[in-house]
Amino acid sequence: MKISVQSGDFDLGLEVKKISNDKTGAVASFVGVVREVPMTLEHYPGMTENSIRKIVEEAAARWQVMDCTVIHRHGALQPGEQIVLVAVSSAHRGQAFQACEFLMDYLKTSAPFWKKESTDTGARWVDARVADDAAAARWGIQAGNA
Q: 105 phi and psi, to 5 degrees?
């Protein structure tokens, strides 16, 4: 299991290859991309990685996860840049899809990251959307439970 909070970009193909082997039946992945306006992400080093590690362990306990990679970037990012990767390998696609979605819902609502968008009218901190909180709630994830 790989968990990385980093400023540098990542290579989806390389990361998927690292979690695949001859027993892998499925890899589900999600790549989030910065939309429309520049964004700066802040986090608490150590705390953020530990929080993500715990939720990855929970995903592995809930589903038949063979391997998993979670990479989340921090710092200043421009529109079109990759911001997050979740990739899950499993023997079966359903397990991989569910674990991947669970992890993304956690990252979107509860991981200790703070996002600030820079617009023409100034910078503003981004709050979680109600729809994101509802998606996380179906897994038993409470928003802000980092």
A: -60, -40
